[in-house]
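Take a look at the protein record below with the fold in mind.
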Amino acid sequence: MMKIYADERRELILSYLSINKRATVKQLSDYANVSEATIRSDLSALQQEQKLERTHGGAKLIKSNTNNINFNERRNQHHRAKEKIGQHALKKIENHQCILLDASSTTYELAKVLADTDLQLTVLTNGLENAILLKENPNLTVLMIGGFVTKGSNAITGKLDSQILDIYNIDYFFVSANGFTVKNGLTDFSFSEVELKKVMASQSTYVVALLDHSKFNVSSTLSFAKTTEIDEIITDKPLSKEFMEATSVEITIAE
């Protein structure tokens, strides 16, 4: 039997639950090809990370998943971690560069520090709140990517005006996601956002994923960037040795 590491096993569990919504310990044991005792240990760990809810004899996905939470509520989740990540991401940016920001609550923390920067930058974004913040800084040239706006979201989505990305040479794309796994890369639940993020990533020289610790080993419905398409991940906590060995993406811990 091929040995699989804890992170990979827990990724399998979350992937199974994302499809089936709930499962028994036996079902997960058969699926991952490990003992039921090992699965129980994994379920306890994942419950502590608030990635699932234990049930009698099994587990289910937590109902209050991020796809049901509006932007302002997401901003308050793991807020200090997102602040650290956003502040660290600023260190990568140099004067006169062109950067691209998605509409995530983590990237919003980068926008907050960019709002006070002395750097001369061109900033493209599909984030409404990002643009509102950044337009007040005279050092920044801010461009909005056009599309659809939906209730409870900070994002302008769709590809109505994504051709603007063809005009600019984008140095950095700062992006977050609903989840990240080694197998599926960066994943999200909104088809329109995923389609736009695919274009954003493909048009950027360097893709930086801003992910707090809660995003790892979570796989949502749709992938928009495989691990081979991600240049760097900035996160707030050290990752397990097994996880680090399983991916070639550069991992930076925000101080």
Remarks:
- Residues 76 and 135 are 23 Å apart (CA to CA).
- Confidence is low (pLDDT under 50) at residues 64-68.
- The two ends are 40 Å apart (CA to CA).
